[in-house]
Design goal:
The structure holds three protein chains of three kinds. By secondary structure, chain B is of the alpha+beta class. Chain B has 18 helices and eleven strands. Chain B starts with a helix and ends with a helix. The radius of gyration of chain C is 22 Å and the shape is globular. Classes of the chains: A mainly alpha, B alpha+beta, C alpha+beta. Chains A and C meet through helix 2, helix 3, helix 4, helix 5 and helix 7 of A and helix 1 and helix 7 of C.
C-alpha cells in the first residue's frame, strides 16, 4: 500500500471531512471488560477489513484508556505497535491520528517515518504540514533545520506557517522571522504567525516592532490589531509610557480615527497604562 | 536543507557499517573502540540530531555486549542509561546489556529501580539485534518493560530497594570511573569568559568563581529529558537547602550554567531556576550563560555534550565542585549525584583553601598599612623620634636603614598586590595601592612636599577598600 | 461614627470574594465618635454595585440566612463575628456591597464591596467574564515564560502515577485546577474557572474570541483560529506557539461521546461508592473523563501533552463538577465516611491515600514520586486557609466547608448548592 501512495493521497488528509454530523453516533464494539476488552480493541484497530468507524471507535476507547495509567501498562506496548503499524494504513485519518499520538510521546519510529517523508515526498504518509507539526513535539528530532529550509522553499502557506512556529524555538531564525513580519507582501496569516513566533522567541524585540506597526498608517488592520493585543496584554508599561509617538497614535485612535475594534483596544491600552 | 540532513543520514549509515566491521572482529581491540564510542564527545556524534545519537549509542552498547560480557569500563554508560534513558530502545538495550555483566551487584539496585519506574511510562516495542531498534512496521521482539523486568529478575534479591533507604554504593573500582579529579590550574582564556546571570549582570569567570568554593552544574532549559536537566537544577536547589542548614549558604556558591546560551536568556534562566526551587536571592547563587566563549568553558570542564544545529543533541549529567581558585576539585558525572556528597566536598575545600586565601588576601593590605606607618617626612621623623625619645626604649637607628626597610616593605607590598590581582582580578584598590607605593618610592628617593601624605592616603584607602571587600565576601 | 466590615476576616481587597459557603466576617466600630453608651445596634444589608449577585447573612455558619442582619457592636472597637454566603452569582467585580446602618436609619456607617465568585458553565459566561478569563490565562502563560509552564510541565508522562489510574485521580485534579484558579486570581481576582459540560453543546467555547476555532475532524495539526484581539493567540505551552485542537464532533450541536452527566453520576451505584464512581476516569464504557480528552486530535488527547491546552482546565473543572454533584447527591463530602473514598489494605500507592500529601505541592522527590516538582507549594488564597500549602488527599473533599468551615477551599459551582 505504501508503494502506491502518492503525494496527492497524502495530501487528502487536509480536506478529509468537511461537514459535521448533527450528532455523533458511535458504534458499539461490544468489548469484554478489562484488559481483554482493550486487546479486542487493539485487534479491531489493526484489522483493515473492519470499517473505518469501528476502527476509529476502537482507537477512541484505547486512547481514553491510556489515562488509566497502570491498568493500561499490560497492553501499552501492543498499543504502540498497533499505532506504528497504522502509519502505513490505507486510511489517511488513521495514519494521521496514529502519527499524532506517537509523536506526542516522542516515538522514534514515527519520527523516522515523518522525517523520511519530508526528505523524500514520494514516501510521505501524511502531508508535509502535518509531518512538520508532529515532529515539533520533539525539537531534538532534527526538525528545526528542516523547518528553516522548508520555510524558504515551500510554496504551501500552511507548511510555511508551521515552519515559522518551529522557528519560534530557534535563535538562528530570528532574523528570518523579523524579515517576514516586516514584509507586507507576505499574507496576513504568515505575518501574524511571525508575530507570534517573534513574541515567543524574543518578546522585547516583538514589543518594539508592535509599537512601530501601530504607528504605520499603511499597516494592515489585523496586523495592527495583533500588535495592539500584544501591547495591551504583555506590554512593558515603562516603554509604552515613554513612547510619545505611540501615546499620540493611541490618542488618535481612541478619539475616533480608527476602526471600532482598534478604537476599543486603544482605549483599553490607554486605561491600563494610565496614558 | 536536504544536503545537511542527507549527510546526517549517510553518516548514520556509515556508522552502522563501521560497527558491523567491528562486530565481525576485523578490527583489533574492538571492545576498546566501542567504549570510546560510548563517550558523547566522540566525533561520530558531532552535528548528528539527538534521535540519531540515541540510535547510534544504543547500537554501540548492544554491539559491545554482544562481542563480550559487559566490561567494568562500560558500566558507567549502561547504568547511566538505566537511570536516565528517555527512549525505550536505549533503555531496553541498557537493561539487556547489564545482564551480560559477570554478576548482579547490590549496587546496581538504584539504577535498575529507576529503570523499572521509567520503563512503565515509555513502554514500546523494541527489536533487539537490529540497528534502530525497530522491526518491520515498527514491531519488535521485545520491549523496554520486558527487558527491564528481565533485568529485575536477574538481579534477584539484590533488586529490592528499601523505601527511604540509601542503596549500596558501587565498588570503589567502578565508582572511580564516574568521576574525575581535576586540578588543572585555571588560567588564561577561561578566566576571561564572560558569564551573564539571570539578572543580566555580566562578570568574568575569574570574578564569579574566585574566593570561595562553588558547586557548578550544567543544564539547558530546552532539555526534555525529565531525568536530566530539570532534576539537576532541582537538586542544586536541594544543595542550597543543605548549605543553609549547615550555615554555609554565603560561604559556598551554587551555580547552574546553560549549554544553550543563545536560547537561555536571563529571563528564561531565572524562570527555569526559580520554578525548580533554585534560590537566586543572593549574589553567591546564580543561573548563568556564556553568550560568548562557551567552547572555552567546554574545554575547561571537559563537558560531555554534543550539538546539532545549535541544539544540544546529547549530554551527560555533570556537576563540579570548584575550589576557591575556580579549579575543578571534584566531579560527578552520568549517575544521579548525592547533594550531601557535593556539599561535603565543597565544605572540605572551605576548610583548606579559604584560610590560605584569607591569609594571602590580608597580607597585602597589612603590608600597605605597615608601609604607610614608615616615617616619610621630617615632621614624621620628629614625631616618631619624639615618641622614641619620650619612651626611651628605641635603639639607635639611622634614616638610611629605615629607608631600606621602607623600600623593602614597599616592594613586598607591590608584589603582594600584583599577586592578588591574579586571584581576584584588577580592582580599584589595586590601582590605588600600587599608585601609593610608587609615589612613596619616589618620595624616598627625592622628597616632594605633600607627596608622602598623598602616598600614605592612597595606600591607606587601598588597604581599607581591600579589607572591606574581604570582609564583605 | 464608623463601622469597619471585614470579609473573610480580612480587610485585604483579595479577600472580598464569597461563594455559596459561609464566609466568616467581622464588624466593629472603627470610629466611636458620637456614640452614646457602650454599644450600638446596627443593621447589615446589601446594595447592588452593578456586578450583580446576592448574599445572605447569619450570626452562625448554618441555616438559610437572611437578607439583613442586626448586630450589636461594642463601642470599644471589639469585633463582632457574623457570616455571609452567596445565593446569586456576580458577573463582575465588585458585584454588591454590604452596608452597615444604624438600626433605625438608612445612614451608611460603613460598607464593604464584595463579589459572589462562582464557577459557572462556559455557556453562561458573559462577554466580560470570558474576556477577563482569557486575559488572565494569557498573562499566566506570558508567551511560555509564565507560571503556566509549570502546570503544563507537571501533567506529563513521568508524573502519571501521581494523578491517574488510582483513587487519587479526582482529589489530585481538584487540587490542580484549584492551584491554577488561584494563580489566575492573583492576576485578576474576579476570575473563577468555568466548567465545560462536555456532554452538552458549547458552541460559545470553541470560537475565535474564546478558546479558538479548530477544523472539524482535522489531523490535529491545525492551530485553532483566534481573532486578532484574543491574547491567547500568543499562547505557548508546548514546543511551538499556538494551540492545536481539532474536534471530532460538531461543537455546535453534538456531544462528543455516549456518556452523559447523569450516567456518570450513576456510576457510583450500587451503594454510591467512590470506588465505583471513580471509574469515570478512563475505561470504556464508563470513560466519561477520558472520552472528553480524546474527542479532539491534538495535545489534549494524550497525558504528556494534555495540559498544554488551556481547555484541559475547563474540561477537568467539569470532571470536578461531576464529583461535586455526586458528593452532594450522596453525602460524600466527609472523607471520614468510608464510601467517600477508597481506603484499602494494604494501602494504595503513595499519593492515593487520604493521609498522603500530594505531589508536586509537597515537593517530595523521593521514589516512587517523580524526580521533579515544578511550581512550588499550593497557591494560597486570601479568602480561605484550606487546603494548605502541601495538601493531603483528605484536604480537598469538603470543598465548601460543609463538614467543617475550615475545610472551605473557596470555590462553588453554580448548580451545586451548599
Amino acid at each position: 500500500m505504501k508503494k502506491t501512495k502518492t503525494k496527492a493521497a497524502a495530501s487528502a488528509g487536509r480536506r478529509s471531512v468537511k461537514a459535521a454530523p448533527a450528532k455523533a453516533t458511535l458504534p458499539n464494539l461490544k468489548l469484554a471488560s478489562g484488559n481483554d476488552g482493550l486487546r479486542q480493541a487493539i485487534d479491531i484497530l489493526r484489522d483493515s477489513s473492519e470499517t473505518l468507524e469501528r476502527r476509529l471507535e476502537a482507537l477512541r476507547i484505547l486512547q481514553a484508556a491510556t489515562f488509566a495509567d497502570e491498568q493500561f501498562d499490560a497492553v501499552r506496548s501492543d498499543f504502540v505497535a498497533a499505532l506504528r503499524a497504522l502509519t502505513e494504513d490505507k486510511e489517511v485519518q488513521l495514519r494521521q491520528r496514529a502519527l499524532g499520538l506517537l509523536a506526542r510521546s516522542q516515538d522514534s519510529y514515527a519520527e523516522k517515518v515523518l522525517m523520511t517523508g519530508l526528505k523524500q515526498p514520494e514516501k510521505a504518509v501524511v502531508p508535509a504540514v502535518d509531518a512538520l507539526h508532529y515532529l515539533s513535539y520533539n525539537l531534538h528530532s532534527g526538525v528545526q533545520s528542516m523547518a528553516r529550509s522548508l520555510f524558504e522553499t515551500s510554496k504551501d502557506q500552511g507548511v510555511r506557517q508551521q515552519a515559522l512556529r518551529l522557528m519560534a524555538n530557534d535563535p538562528q531564525a530570528i532574523k528570518t522571522i523579523q524579515k517576514t513580519l516586516a514584509n507586507k507582501k507576505e499574507t496576513v496569516e504568515i505575518r501574524q504567525t511571525s508575530a507570534e513566533a517573534l513574541h515567543a522567541l524574543d518578546p522585547t524585540a516583538y514589543q518594539k516592532w508592535a509599537s512601530k506597526a501601530v504607528l504605520d498608517a499603511s499597516e494592515d488592520a489585523d496586523v495592527v490589531a495583533t500588535s495592539l493585543t500584544a501591547l495591551q496584554h504583555f506590554g512593558d508599561a515603562k516603554a509604552i509610557a515613554g513612547n510619545s509617538a505611540l501615546r499620540a497614535r493611541l490618542g488618535e485612535m481612541s478619539a475616533g480615527k480608527a476602526a471600532p475594534k482598534l478604537k476599543r483596544m486603544a482605549k483599553m491600552i490607554a486605561s491600563k497604562y494610565g496614558l | 536543507m536536504s544536503a545537511t540532513l542527507s549527510r546526517c543520514e549517510v553518516r548514520e549509515a556509515q556508522f552502522a557499517a563501521e560497527i558491523a566491521v567491528l562486530m565481525r572482529g576485523e578490527v583489533a581491540d574492538a571492545q576498546r573502540t566501542f567504549i570510546g564510542l560510548c563517550d558523547e564527545r566522540n566525533a561520530a556524534y558531532t552535528e548528528q540530531p539527538a534521535s540519531a545519537v540515541t540510535r547510534m549509542r544504543a547500537w554501540v552498547l548492544e554491539s559491545l555486549c554482544r562481542v563480550a560480557p559487559l566490561p567494568d569500563e562500560a558500566l558507567p554508560f549502561v547504568l547511566e542509561e538505566l537511570e536516565t534513558a528517555h527512549d525505550p530502545y536505549l533503555l531496553a538495550v541498557a537493561a539487556w546489556c547489564l545482564r551480560t555483566y559477570t554478576q548482579p551487584l547490590p549496587s546496581f539496585a538504584a539504577a535498575v529501580s529507576l529503570a523499572s519506574r521509567n520503563a512503565q511510562a515509555m513502554d514500546a516495542p523494541v527489536m533487539l539485534g537490529v540497528y534502530g531498534g525497530a522491526g518491520p512496521a515498527g514491531g519488535g521482539n521485545s520491549s523496554a518493560l520486558r527487558e527491564v523486568s528481565a533485568t529485575v529478575e536477574w538481579m534477584g534479591p539484590h533488586a529490592v530497594v528499601a523505601a527511604g533507604a540509601c542503596c549500596p554504593e558501587l565498588p570503589e573500582s567502578i565508582a572511580a570511573l564516574f568521576r574525575r579529579k581535576v586540578s588543572t590550574v585555571s588560567r588564561g582564556a577561561v578566566d576571561r569568559v564572560a558569564l551573564q546571570d539571570h539578572r543580566g549582570d555580566t562578570k568574568s569567570f575569574r570574578e564569579r568563581f574566585r574566593g570561595q568554593p562553588t558547586i557548578v552544574a550544567f543544564f539547558y532549559s530546552r532539555c526534555d529529558n525529565p531525568y536530566k536537566c530539570t532534576l539537576t537544577v532541582a537538586k542544586l536547589g536541594r544543595v542550597q537547602a543543605i548549605l543553609e542548614e549547615r550555615g554555609l549558604f554565603e560561604r559556598i556558591r551554587t551555580t547552574a550554567i546553560s549549554y544553550d546560551a543563545a536560547y537561555d536568556t536571563p529571563e528564561r534562566l531565572l524562570r527555569y531556576g526559580r520554578n525548580r526551587g533554585f534560590r537566586v536571592d543572593s549574589e553567591n547563587h546564580a543561573m548563568l550563560r556564556a553568550p560568548e566563549g562557551f567552547d572555552v568553558l567546554r574545554r575547561h570542564f571537559e563537558l560531555g555534550v554534543s550539538f546539532f544545529d545549535s541544539l544540544v543533541s546529547r549530554h551527560r549529567i555533570e556537576v563540579f565542585v570548584l575550589d576557591g581558585e575556580g579549579r575543578v576539585a571534584f566531579t560527578f558525572q552520568r549517575l544521579n549525584w548525592s547533594e550531601q556528597k557535593a556539599v561535603d566536598e565543597a565544605e572540605a575545600l572551605l576548610g583548606a583553601a579559604p584560610k590560605s586565601t584569607v591569609r594571602a588576601a590580608s597580607a597585602a593590605p597589612m603590608a600597605g598599612l605597615a608601609a604607610s606607618l614608615i616615617p616619610k617626612c621630617p615632621m614624621c621623623w620628629a614625631t616618631y623620634l619624639s615618641f622614641v625619645g619620650v619612651t626611651g626604649t628605641l635603639p639607635a637607628l639611622n634614616s638610611v636603614a629605615l629607608k631600606a626597610v621602607a623600600a623593602a616593605l614597599l616592594t613586598l607590598h607591590v608584589l603582594l598586590a600584583l599577586w592578588r590581582v591574579r586571584a581576584t582580578g584588577w580592582h580599584m584598590s589595586h590601582t590605588l595601592s600600587v599608585a601609593g607605593a610608587l609615589a612613596m618610592a619616589a618620595n624616598l628617593v627625592d622628597p616632594v612636599p605633600g607627596l608622602a601624605v598623598a602616598a600614605v592616603a592612597l595606600m591607606l584607602l587601598a588597604s581599607i577598600l581591600t579589607v572591606r571587600r574581604q570582609y564583605a565576601r | 461614627m464608623n463601622v469597619e466590615i471585614q470579609i473573610n476576616n480580612s480587610l485585604k481587597p483579595a479577600a472580598r470574594y464569597v461563594t455559596w459557603a459561609w464566609s466568616p466576617c467581622l464588624a466593629r466600630i472603627s470610629n466611636p465618635a458620637l456614640i452614646i453608651g457602650t454599644q450600638v445596634a446596627i443593621t447589615l444589608n446589601q446594595a447592588a454595585l452593578g456586578g450583580g449577585g446576592q448574599i445572605r447573612f447569619s450570626k452562625t455558619a448554618s441555616g438559610a440566612g437572611a437578607a439583613t442582619l442586626s448586630l450589636t457592636l461594642p463601642k470599644n472597637g471589639a469585633s463582632v463575628p457574623f457570616f455571609v454566603r452567596g445565593t446569586v452569582a456576580s458577573t463582575a467585580d465588585p458585584g454588591l456591597q454590604i452596608n452597615a446602618h444604624p438600626a433605625s436609619s438608612r445612614l451608611v456607617l460603613g460598607s464593604a464591596a464584595l463579589m459572589v465568585r462562582i464557577r459557572k458553565s462556559v455557556t453562561s459566561l458573559t462577554t466580560p467574564e470570558r474576556d477577563r478569563l482569557i486575559a488572565a490565562l494569557a498573562t499566566l502563560n506570558n508567551q511560555g515564560l509564565g507560571r503556566y509552564a509549570d502546570f503544563a510541565g507537571t501533567h506529563v508522562q513521568a508524573a502519571t502515577p501521581e494523578a491517574h489510574g488510582r483513587p487519587g485521580f479526582l482529589p489530585w485534579h481538584r487540587a490542580f485546577v484549584l492551584d491554577l484558579e488561584r494563580e489566575l486570581q492573583a492576576i485578576d481576582s474576579s476570575v473563577a474557572i468555568p466548567y465545560w459540560r462536555f456532554d452538552q453543546p458549547a458552541a460559545a467555547l470553541f470560537t475565535p474570541d474564546f478558546l479558538g476555532r479548530g477544523v472539524f475532524q482535522g489531523p490535529g495539526t491545525n492551530a485553532v483560529v483566534f481573532s486578532a484581539t484574543n491574547p491567547l493567540r500568543f499562547w505557548k505551552a508546548g514546543p511551538t506557539p499556538g494551540i492545536f485542537r481539532d474536534p471530532f464532533f460538531n461543537v455546535n450541536a453534538a456531544s462528543p461521546g455516549p456518556m452523559g452527566q447523569a450516567a456518570a453520576l450513576a456510576l457510583g451505584n450500587p451503594g454510591a461508592l467512590f470506588k465505583n464512581f471513580r471509574r469515570l476516569e478512563s475505561i470504556a464504557p464508563q470513560d466519561y473523563h477520558g472520552q472528553a480528552h480524546v474527542s479532539f486530535s491534538g495535545p489534549i488527547d494524550s497525558i504528556p501533552t494534555a495540559a498544554q491546552d488551556p481547555l484541559f482546565f475547563l474540561l477537568h473543572c467539569n470532571v470536578d463538577h461531576a464529583w461535586a454533584l455526586w458528593q452532594k447527591q450522596n453525602a460524600r463530602l466527609d472523607p471520614a465516611t468510608a464510601a467517600s473514598f477508597e481506603t484499602v489494605t494494604p494501602p494504595n500507592r503513595i499519593g492515593h491515600n487520604l493521609g498522603d500529601t500530594m505531589w508536586p505541592w509537597n515537593g517530595d522527590l523521593n521514589p516512587p514520586r517523580p524526580n521533579f516538582a515544578l511550581g512550588g507549594t499550593m497557591a494560597p488564597s486570601a479568602c480561605v486557609g484550606a487546603p494548605g500549602l502541601k495538601p493531603k488527599v483528605q484536604d480537598v473533599f469538603d470543598y465548601q466547608g460543609s463538614v467543617s468551615l475550615v475545610n472551605n477551599l473557596g470555590f462553588s459551582y453554580d448548580d451545586v448548592p451548599l
